[in-house]
Amino acid sequence: MPRMNMIQALNSAMDIAMQRDEGVIILGQDVGYFGGVFRCTDGLQKKYGEQRVIDTPIAEGGIIAAAIGMSVNGLRPVAEIQFADYIYPAYDQIVSELARLRYRSAGEFSAPITVRVPSGGGIRGGQTHSQSPEALFAHVCGVKVVMPSNPYDAKGLLTAAIEDDDPVIFFEPKRLYNGPFDADPDKPAVAWTAHSKGEVPAGHYTVPMGKAEIVRAGSAVTIITYGTLVHVVQAVVESTGIDAEIIDVRSIVPLDVETLATSVCKTGRCIVAHEATEFAGFGAELVATVQRECFWQLEAPIERVAGWDTPYPHAFEWEYFPGRKRIAAALEQVMAGT
Fold first, then answer.
1. Using one digit for the tens of pLDDT, what is the confidence trace for 287-332?
2. Engineered SS bond to 34: which of 30, 58, 61, 110, CB 3.0-4.6 Å?
3. Largest Cα–Cα distance of the chain, in whole Å?
4. Tens of pLDDT along 107-163?
5. Is residue 205 part of a domain?
6. Cα–Cα distances in Å, from 101 out to 68, 104, 111, 264, 317?
C-alpha cells in the first residue's frame, strides 16, 4: 500500500468520492485554486472544475446554508470550515437547519453533508486558530461527530462520512496533518519523523462510524482518548511500562459504548484524556458513561486529563496541552487509587 500523511489521505478520500459520484461537491474558503490553507483539497479543482470545487466568500453561515440547499437537491456537499474557530457563525445553520432537516421533513429530505473542520492547536495559532469545540456538536441531536488520529482512519472515516445520508462534523487535528510528532511539551518544536506517513489503501474503503479502536491491548488500566492525544498517551504508556489498554474513540457520535465498557470492566481503572478544555468537555460524557456501565467493576476513581479551563493561551500553548507529565501523573494517581 502507498504511504500517506493525513493531508494526502484526506485528499485521496475526496478525490475517489468525486470520481465515484458526480454529486459530490466541495466548497469552502480557498479550497479551489489555492487547494486549501492546509492543502487538503490540492489539485481537485484543476481535476474536476470550478463547478464541483467551489471557492466561497468568507461567510461560514453561507457555506453551510449553500451546502444544505445542495443536499436537498440531491448533491453530497463536502464543506470546509477553514479553522474550527471560524465555525461559530455557521452554528445556527448547523443546529437549527442541518441537524433537524430529516426530522422536520418527516424523512422526505436528508442532509448528506460532510463538514470538514481543522481543529486543535500545535501550530502557534493562538486562541482564534486552535480551539477544539467537538463537545458543542456532540450535544446536537441529528449530527454525527468524528475525529481521526491517523491517515488510515482519516481516509476511511471521511469516505464513510461522505457516503452517509446524514450530516457529519468531521474534525481534523491539525497537529497530525503531517504525521506523528514529538509528544513532549518540553520540546515544543514540531519534530516530524520518518514515520510521518502510514500505509493507506490507494482505492476506495471505509472505516465505520460508531466503532472505537483498541490501539493497544492491556490489563492494568484503560485510557480513553481521541485525536492528537492518542499519540501522546501512547508515548506515556511506553515510557512508564504500565500495561495500559488505549482506546481511540474515533467516533464521538455515535459512541461505541460497548468497547469502552468491556475494556474498563476488564481493567477496573480508567483515564479519559482530550485536548479540549476540561469543564463540560466531551470527557465528562465519557466519564459518565463509564461510571454508569462499569460502576461495580471500578477499583479507583476515574481520572480526567484535559486542556485548561481558560481561553486558549497563545504564549503557553504547550503548557495548555495535556502532555506527558500530566498524563503520567494521572496514571500514577489511578493506579494508586483504591
1. 999 999 999 999 999 999 999 998 888 888 888 989 899 999 999 9
2. 30
3. 62
4. 999 999 999 999 999 888 888 899 999 999 999 999 999 999 999 999 999 999 999
5. no
6. 9, 5, 7, 37, 38
Residues acting as catalytic residues: 129
317 and 232 both lie in a single domain: yes
Q: Are residues 160 and 68 in the same domain?
A: yes
CA 104 to CA 25: how far, in whole Å?
24
What residues are paired with 145 via a beta bridge?
169, 253
Let me know whether 134 and 249 are in one domain: no
Last residue of a domain, one of 145, 169, 199: 199
- Mean pLDDT over residues 95-113, rounded? 95
* Collapsed DSSP state (helix, strand, coil) of residue 3: strand
The single-letter code of the amino acid at 8 is Q
Confidence band, pLDDT 50/70/90 cuts, at residue 178: confident
Cell numbers at 220, concatenated: 492494568
Q: For the chain, how many structural domains are there in total?
A: 2
C-alpha–C-alpha distance, residues 94 and 101, integer Å: 10
pLDDT number for residue 1: 86
Asked whether residue 99 is assigned to any structural domain, the reply reads: yes
User: Which string of DSSP letters, residue by residue, matches 14-35?
Assistant: HHHHHHH-TTEEEEETT-SSS-
pLDDT of residue 195: 44
Contacts of 270 (CB under 8 A, 6+ apart): 221, 222, 223, 224, 264, 287, 290, 294, 298, 302, 303, 334
- Asked if the structure places residue 208 within a domain, the reply is no
Q: Identify the domain boundary among 144, 165, 199.
A: 199
Instruction: State the Cα–Cα distance between residues 64 and 73, nearest whole angstrom.
Output: 14
Whether pTM exceeds 0.85: yes
